[in-house]
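Researcher: Let's continue the batch. This sequence belongs to Large ribosomal subunit protein bL20, and it's 115 residues. Same format as the previous ones, please.
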Amino acid sequence: MSRVKRGVQKNKRRKNILAQTKGYRFDRSRKERVAKEAIHHAGVHAFRHRRTKKREFRYLWTIRINAAARGGGMSYSRFIDALKKANIALDRKVLSALAKDHPEVFVRLTKSLKK
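Model: Same format as before. Here are the C-alpha cells for Large ribosomal subunit protein bL20:
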C-alpha cells in the first residue's frame, strides 16, 4: 500500500482554524491546539447567547411597555389584561415600538382600553 502524506490537508485545516481565531489574544490566535479550544468555547457561548438574547429583548419590551402604560395611568399587568379582553392581538415587540417611537398612538391605545 502506498504512503499517504497529509501535509496539504493539514496545513489547510490549520490555516482555516487560525483564520477563525483572527483577532483573538495571545496563543489563541497563533497555536492550533489553543485556537481549536477557543473556537469551541466561542461556539458554545454563541449558541447560549442566541437564546439569552431573546429573553433579554422580551424583558426590555416589558420595561418599555410598563413605563409607557404608567404614563397613561395603567400598570403593565392591567394594560396587557385589558388588551387581551379587548381582543387586540399586538405582541410585546410591536407595543414596545409604539411606546418608543409613537408615544401619542400608545397613549390613545391606553385611553381606549381604560373605558
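Researcher: Any comment?
Model: The two ends are 87 Å apart (CA to CA).
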